Amino acid sequence: MTDSTATLLSSIPSVDKLLRTADAETLIDAFGRQPVTNAVRDDLAALRQSLARKDDVAVDDVSATNILARVVATLEADLSPSLKPVFNLTGTVLHTNLGRAPLPEEAINAIAAVSRGASNLEFNLTTGKRGDRDVHVEDKFAELIGAEAATIVNNNAAAVLLMLNALALRKEVIVSRGELIEIGGAFRIPDIMSRAGAKLREVGTTNRTHPKDFEEAISPKTAMLMKIHTSNYEVQGFTAAVSDTDLAALAHKNDLPFVIDLGSGTMTDLRQFGLPHEPTAQEALASGADLVSFSGDKLLGGPQAGIIAGRADLIAKVKKNPMKRAMRCDKMTIAALETILRLYADPDRLAERIPTLRLLARKQEEIRATATRISPALDNTLGDRYAVALDQCQSQIGSGSLPAERLDSVALVIRPTATKGVGTALKHLATALRSLPMPVIGRIQDDAFWLDLRCLEPSNEEAFISQLNAITIK
Ligand SMILES: *Cc1c(COP(=O)(O)O)cnc(C)c1O
Q1: Assigned CATH class of 105-353
Q2: Domain segments of the chain: what residues?
Q3: Which of 60, 91, 174, 385 has the fewest CB atoms lying closer than 10 Å?
Q4: What is the mean pLDDT of residues 49-71?
Q5: CATH 3.90.1150.180 fits 87-95+359-470, yes or no
Q6: Residue with the nearest Cα to atom 5 of ligand 1?
Q7: DSSP string covering 285-326, please?
Q8: What is the pTM of this model?
């Protein structure tokens, strides 16, 4: 050990002494005694380790002031939430990695109201007896969809698992080969089927399935015919699929239920908002499906949930299944769903009140106006190293809805001005935008960084601009 290392080691203040300083008292008031003590201890241990490793340690590094300054930085970083809001400027409106549907303000208020204290979640206020948590939404879902009955679970993957387990345990479920889909990683129809205890009986080929394929597969072992909406890809070219109506007729001729997993599923015709048509739960039932399931946080525009609607006797079976208890929705979800249902009861104002629909229906001209307003601020912040331009782009709906459809939008396109090191410059820009207090997420494409402004509504423009001065690009 050199003399200077020994001197530095001996000049490191003790934890006790540091904690008794006035600066430390202020920190303890702000962060609490235990977190400050732990952070100080960790910092001193790191200092001693650096000295033992003979790293470069300056005299200043061991001063009480600098130790506490590092402690503040650590505590602030630890306190900043891991899960936080971001600007989704990826061009994918329902982005699974970015939390899917933004909730209406009314739903957020309803969540806050029931979370703050006790509620009549499972308590019947009329009889004063124990109630069922699903009553707050089940009948309203059934009514809106035009179904005999409905129920809800945590998400649509759970809905599919539950329907299969409740109606097809140890029996066969006939599905077209073209529909054995994988949705975002772990949700694969064949795996879900086996975990649900049902046997998959695949029929037809990837591109073509005919009525006789189903007919020949039906046996005493069959529990149901199932259709899975191939929501994240399209099979094009030489294709054939059996229509819902034909599948329903075939199922019913054999006394079997016909079940449709819609995935996105909506309860309203999206064409009224100038969007492409996506099958609705109503249409699925009208075509003869006995049960239909769909997600709460895709096109419906609500909280994460899975909705199952259809025949009353089948819904009763689903609800009686013990797995239903393990998949039940919590009160916050139920509160949000109830609000969503109230908004859907007034279809004329849906596009204003359900943020997902509002964003999807947003006109290219409105998006261009946003781009024109915020472009100068961004250009100014980025300086000479990057050039900002407006360009047209195409947004996607996302979450597997209408995979082939694109919505005309406008993006701010940022290009590095230097011709060398374009890739690196773009990566540095992306990192800097992700490091902002409210991270900005865009995408790199064609040697440029694209910010699709479809999801930046006028009410958020100020928040977007005001944090730009915090940007630091490597
Ligand atoms: C999205 C989707 C699911 C899974 O729904 P989650 O709500 O994400 O659990 C299941 N089936 C289809 C067809 C889907 O598109």
Answers
A1: alpha beta
A2: 3-79, 87-95+359-470, 105-353
A3: 60
A4: 91
A5: yes
A6: 156
A7: HHTT-SEEEEESSSTT-SSS-EEEEE-HHHHHHHHHSHHHHH
A8: 0.92
